[in-house]
Write a structure and sequence with these properties.
35% of the residues lie in helices and 18% in strands. It is of the alpha/beta class. It folds into two domains: 146 residues, Rossmann fold (3-Layer(aba) Sandwich), CATH 3.40.50; 178 residues, Rossmann fold (3-Layer(aba) Sandwich), CATH 3.40.50.2000. Strands 2-1-3-4-5-6 form a six-stranded parallel β-sheet. Strands 9-8-7-10-11-12 form a six-stranded parallel β-sheet, with helices on both faces. Strand 8, helix 7 and strand 9 form a beta-alpha-beta unit. Helix 3 packs parallel to helix 4.
Length: 357
């Protein structure tokens, strides 16, 4: 059954070319929404498969060559042109485009698009984290970013935050009668997250916590060789060597009063988990200070943590972890402050309407 949504943009029978990373199942969600609108969608991965990409990236640093991805890019371009529909594409959307080059984009625009086709670039990462630093987007008719700071510093970029999918839409899910957890957090292993999770665990023995980090076995073996102290005596209540299925993560969040989301320490844009908590109407505790810049921020629903690194240093030096005590029942049990008109603006359907408008 297709999702029910009042689409504002008519994409029926439009040919849409998308180049973007494979990121969990989000590319599938985007594809499915566009298909539901009656569009013809061709999706291409923006990077080689992960192992090959990491090898090429390391070679690039070692050899100091800036064209290490040239063969991949040419193969991608040739494949797109060979597989294009008769007459070409009506829309060309690139999300991130981390290893794409100006020449590849120009060739695709000249050879694979219809006259007057609309080109759209979306930065699903901060400029600082990308090889092209956002310059690639200036080859497109329209450009947007999920990063509020990049948008402020680059007026030709629109700020369009990420989205929640139908899987995280409270109106499509059964309401929970009771909760198993006070706080849930499920994400990939990073040393800073593991450090803070241990601090939160020590500081909140009175709360029901489910703090989980996925540590890939290959990453664990690498860290064991390069930084054995980091992975010595791991807390297996926090660490999992088995990845968490998307449905499992969603169900854990649904059975929790609040979600704890620790973004990368330099991250400025809002995480997908932030948008998903908005979708399922769950309270959020996060270390992303930029959350306060958004229209849906509400002190009743959101708590922003600051200076966690300094607080962790102090706690480890003194044994006093009180700085990591999470909000108690006065905040957790206070009803979620709803604003349905704002919440709907951040669904995947509204996000695509915004991009293709």
């Amino acid at each position: 059954m297709q999702p029910i949504f009042d689409y504002n943009v008519d994409l029926k029978l439009k040919n849409i070319l998308i180049i973007m990373p494979k990121f969990y199942s989000y590319q599938t969600k985007i594809h499915d929404d566009l298909i539901a609108r009656g569009a013809n969608v061709a999706f291409y991965d923006e990077e080689p498969e992960k192992t090959r990409f990491l090898i090429l990236k390391n070679l690039e640093k070692f050899l100091k060559k800036d064209n290490i991805f040239k063969k991949f890019n040419n193969q991608l371009k040739d494949r797109i042109i060979a597989e294009m529909p008769a007459g070409g594409y009506d829309y060309f959307l690139v999300i991130r485009g981390n290893v794409l080059t100006d020449d590849v984009i120009k060739d695709i625009k000249e050879q694979a698009l219809k006259p007057g086709a609309k080109t759209i670039y979306y930065s699903w990462d901060s400029f600082e984290n990308m090889r092209h630093k956002g310059e690639l987007g200036r080859l497109f008719d329209r450009r947007a970013t999920f990063d509020s700071v990049d948008a402020k510093n680059n007026p030709d970029y629109e700020l369009i935050p990420l989205f929640y999918s139908d899987d995280f839409d409270a109106n499509k899910l059964e309401k929970q009668a009771e909760y198993k957890y006070d706080y849930v957090s499920v994400s990939a292993f990073f040393p800073f997250r593991y450090r803070y999770f241990k601090a939160f665990k020590k500081a909140n023995p009175d709360k029901k916590l489910a703090l989980k980090l996925y540590l890939a076995p290959s990453v664990y073996r690498g860290k064991k060789l390069r930084d054995p102290k980091l992975v010595k005596d791991l807390d297996m209540d926090i660490i999992s060597f088995t990845p968490f299925a998307a449905d499992s993560i969603r169900d854990m969040c649904l059975h929790s009063k609040a979600v704890l989301d620790l973004a990368s320490e330099n991250q400025q844009g809002l995480t997908m988990r932030t948008m998903e908590t908005l979708g399922i109407k769950r309270k959020l505790v996060t270390n992303n200070i930029y959350l306060k810049d958004y229209e849906f921020y509400n002190e009743n629903n959101h708590t922003v943590l600051t200076d966690l690194a300094a607080k962790a240093d102090q706690a480890e030096a003194t044994g006093d972890y009180s700085a990591f005590v999470l909000p108690d029942t006065d905040w957790l049990d206070n009803p979620y402050a709803e604003n349905e008109s704002i919440r709907k603006k951040y669904s995947i359907h509204a996000w695509l309407d915004n991009l293709f408008a």
